[in-house]
Amino acid sequence: MKLINLKNKSIASDYVAVELLKLIQSTPTATLGLATGNTMTEIYPRLSELLTANRVNLNDIKTFNLDEYVGLNSSHPQSYYTYMHELLFNHNEWNEDHIYIPRGDAPDLEDEAYAYEQRLFSIGQPDIQLLGIGENGHIGFNEPGTSFDSQTRVVDLTDSTIKANSIHFDTIDDVPKQAISMGLQSIMRAKRIILLAFGERKQEAIERLVNGSKTETLPASILQTHPNVDIIIDDVIFNYLNH
Ligand code: F6R
């Protein structure tokens, strides 16, 4: 794992947007593993600008999102489908047939999760997988205690994740309690992983990831054994790690 301090979210987002652009330009058939949440909000608009400025052909690019809330349909304002379309997919000529996001309102959620994993497996390894991290060390919605062998499936969100996500909903009761999430094994198949973390709330999780041992109580620690991981942090976390 390589730790990279890029000062703040804005500079880090520019860096990651350029990494994605370079991949898309050098590999027009690339597969991107994408994440949602606050950490990613500046990357996608920046990438959209770069794609427009460079007139990039996206027809053969495939994207897989990490997760989706159970119970929200694609038109729900807080679904990750809506998030991704508003921030990224509505802005350039992405090929809708190559955009994969689990359906949180599928009639059979287990079938949906299984089919998603099969699709991911058959299309191949993502060339780059973006990750945020939960305060409790989750990646995707693989909460503490998740098996390192896990694949895409329906997961229960922990109280701390529900609370963290509640800022986007009117009341805490409106926050979905479950999600469909790629598993830890699914994530580890990516050729390159870029995990981003900013601010005080994430500092302890990053310290455990960087200095702690590999344990299922910190799901992100599985990344310690991946050959190509960049952990991008801001000054807040950098200073905390060096206190
Ligand atoms: C989102 C995801 C989650 C988030 C994590 C951090 O697709 O899989 O693991 O990356 O919960 O969320 P934010 O960025 O909102 O702090």
TrEMBL record:
Keyword vocabulary terms for this entry: Carbohydrate metabolism, Hydrolase
- At the top of the EC hierarchy, this enzyme's class is hydrolase
Enumerate the catalysed reactions.
Answer: alpha-D-glucosamine 6-phosphate + H2O = beta-D-fructose 6-phosphate + NH4(+)
What Enzyme Commission number does this protein have?
3.5.99.6
| HAMAP family noted in UniProt | GlcN6P_deamin
Record GO biological process: carbohydrate metabolic process; glucosamine catabolic process; N-acetylglucosamine catabolic process; N-acetylneuraminate catabolic process
Question: What does the UniProt record say this protein does?
Answer: Catalyzes the reversible isomerization-deamination of glucosamine 6-phosphate (GlcN6P) to form fructose 6-phosphate (Fru6P) and ammonium ion.
Which is a Gene Ontology cellular component entry for this protein?
cytoplasm
Pfam name, any one: Glucosamine_iso
Q: May I ask which residue range the UniProt record assigns to the signal sequence? A: none
Tell me its family: Belongs to the glucosamine/galactosamine-6-phosphate isomerase family. NagB subfamily.
Name recorded for this polypeptide:
Glucosamine-6-phosphate deaminase
